[in-house]
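Hi W.,

Here's what went into the run:
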Amino acid sequence: MSDLVTRLRRHQWRMTPQRRVIAETLDGAHVHYTADEILERACERMPELSRATVYNTLNELVALGEVLELNFDGRSKRYDPNVDHEHHHLICDGCGATKDVHTVADPLDWLPGDERHGFAVAKASITFRGRCPECREAR
Amino acid sequence: MSDLVTRLRRHQWRMTPQRRVIAETLDGAHVHYTADEILERACERMPELSRATVYNTLNELVALGEVLELNFDGRSKRYDPNVDHEHHHLICDGCGATKDVHTVADPLDWLPGDERHGFAVAKASITFRGRCPECREAR
DNA sequence: ATCCTAGCTTAGACTTCGTCTAATGAAAGA
DNA sequence: TCTTTCATTAGACGAAGTCTAAGCTAGGAT
Ligand SMILES: [Mn+2]
Ligand SMILES: [Mn+2]
Ligand SMILES: [Zn+2]
Ligand SMILES: [Zn+2]
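Here's what came out:
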């Protein structure tokens, strides 16, 4: 998500200060924030920013394909600005820590034709689960 | 999840009529119901069954490993009684239809050691996405 | 068979996460 | 600068799930 202002203009987006702050909060962060975490961080620069605008903007960024929406635990959604490099996620069952990971092959290749039920299959994402070093230690 | 009463007794579960009805509602259903769908169906046999008991029972079944908790869309969780046969899921982006699918290899084998961040990686689940035959037709 | 008690069930309040509404504000082209 | 169209906002609302506290009951003990 670098040079996001350029990309957003390309999408014919009206550039507002709010959208700029939200997008820059995501930009470069190799993390997976919740909407409320993004609001909190963005509010450090623009205290009057509203929750509704954060949700609106995130949903638009997802629709434009500039951000990925993740949902590991059935609780709050998380937003991933790392959309350029295909990757998957590894999550700690103990503490919820999340890492980006890369597989040695494309998982789409592992789904045989007779398992596709006539679908046009477009993508595959893998969630790996386990225990991080700290949580292994702590039983 | 066949012969679930036997299994539940093995887990030292107190067998109540409510738990029996809920478990039998899941049993044999090769689908992925939401908690409310399970409540609705179970209520056909036991109209006074409460929502809280459905949630309690499902959470316990998940903790016991008798049912899988799925969360595809960030909305309501779904419950999968097909816990015996390792499988993955294929979801239609158009209508939300969900299919069980099987891959030709174990995805754990495709995560190299240097991508594991010191985690003890225990399992991997793949979500395939695409469009079902009906939704392909309809653009 | 009956008693006892730990654990189960229940209604409804509550929490969390997210969407919607309708009034106000402002970006950007003319 | 003017105008139009779209964005922002506070707060109400909704959906999904958890919690509480009071009553009930499964199943072991007697
Ligand atoms: Mn990521
Ligand atoms: Mn399944
Ligand atoms: Zn951990
Ligand atoms: Zn479909």
